[in-house]
Design brief:
- With 300 residues, the chain is of the alpha+beta class.
- It has 2 domains: 1-95; 112-296, Muramoyl-pentapeptide Carboxypeptidase, domain 2, CATH 3.30.1380.10.
- It has helices at residues 2-94, 152-167, 181-197, 202-210, 220-223, 240-248, 263-266, 280-289, 293-296; strands at 112-113, 130-131, 140-142, 149-151, 174-176, 226-229, 254-256, 274-277.
- The strands form 3 sheets. Strands 5-6-8-7 form a 4-stranded antiparallel β-sheet.
- The longest helix has 93 residues, at 2-94.
- The protein is elongated and about 145 Å long.
- The structure holds zinc ion.
- Zinc ion binds next to β6.
């Protein structure tokens, strides 16, 4: 028994030892698996985080890219028109005589009807060859507390000039500003009748009348861009007002539109009282060069 015990006991011991070793091995394996699994978990988790982050940025990317192209196209759209709108400006800056009057001038009988170029509105040329349509309706305001109106865009410059003159002791009394198409037509027809009464034919009377009263649509008063200044008994050319205007009006964008020595081009009598807004740049160039608007715009 003892022997047997002796014989068997080592077997049992070795068996137990083996069992214990197997258990230890199992534990180690389990621990390793646990470690491995947790590493994998951590890796997957972190990968998921990255994935989520990537997806978020992708989602943001979706909104951003979807926003970006919108922005980009908006930018492109907003930039392109700006470029387009600024380009003509730079062109007109280097070439002042660019105007809407690219069409050939018409005649008193058959005038060219024009549309106002929004960008170069201040250079709009009207005369017996170029007329605005009878439907033209400017945005008018009363100037200097008077009963006379001008186009709102011109009125502010007139007021500025008026106040500057006032500081120099000169009052530029607004005498006749905007005139409606109908008023112009009535005045013009009255003048035609006057010349017919003097023995002129209707055709002759129309041409003669147009040198004093412009046909409807061809007067700068119909545009609301011109003001006849001061109504006094003396010849306007002899007044302090006229002298002040000659020296200073261009600084405010106004020109004497119908000079004495250019009547063959303007087809209008000398009118020292008629002052037209063309913008400061053009006014100064016209004053310095002695050109009239027709010559300046290249349609004389
Ligand atoms: Zn006038």
């Amino acid at each position: 028994m003892i022997e047997m015990n002796k014989n068997t006991s080592p077997d049992k011991k070795s068996l137990k030892a083996r069992e214990s070793n197997a258990a230890k091995f199992l534990c180690v394996v389990l621990a390793l698996i646990t470690v491995f699994v947790s590493i994998v978990c951590v890796a997957v988790h972190s990968n998921n985080k990255k994935l989520i982050a990537a997806q978020t940025s992708a989602a943001g990317g979706d909104t951003v890219p979807s926003a970006k192209p919108v922005d980009a196209t908006q930018n492109n759209n907003s930039v392109k028109p700006v470029e387009k709108t600024t380009e003509p400006v730079s062109v007109t800056e280097t070439q002042p005589p660019v105007t809407h009057n690219t069409a050939q001038p018409g005649t008193i009988e058959n005038p060219t009807i024009i549309t106002i170029d929004e960008e170069n509105w201040h250079l709009t040329l009207v005369n017996s060859g170029y007329r605005i349509p009878d439907t033209y309706s400017p945005d008018l305001v009363y100037v200097c507390g008077s009963g006379e109106r001008l186009d709102r865009k011109v009125a502010e410059h007139y007021e500025e000039m008026y106040n500057a003159a006032l500081k120099d002791g000169v009052t530029l009394t607004p005498c006749s500003g905007y005139r409606s198409y109908e008023t112009q037509e009535r005045n013009y027809n009255r003048k035609i009748e006057f010349y017919q009464g003097q023995g002129y034919s209707y055709e002759e009377a129309k041409v003669k009348a147009a040198t004093i009263i412009m046909p409807p649509g061809s007067s700068e008063h119909n545009l609301g861009y011109a003001m006849d200044i001061v109504c006094v008994d003396e010849w306007f050319e002899d007044t302090a007002e006229f002298k002040w205007l000659q020296e200073n009006a261009a600084d405010y964008g106004f020109i004497m539109r119908y000079p004495e020595d250019k009547q063959d081009i303007t087809k209008v009598i000398y009118e020292p009282w008629h002052w037209r807004y063309v913008g400061v740049e053009a006014a100064k160039e016209l004053k310095d060069s002695g050109l009239v608007l027709e010559e300046y715009l290249g349609v004389a």
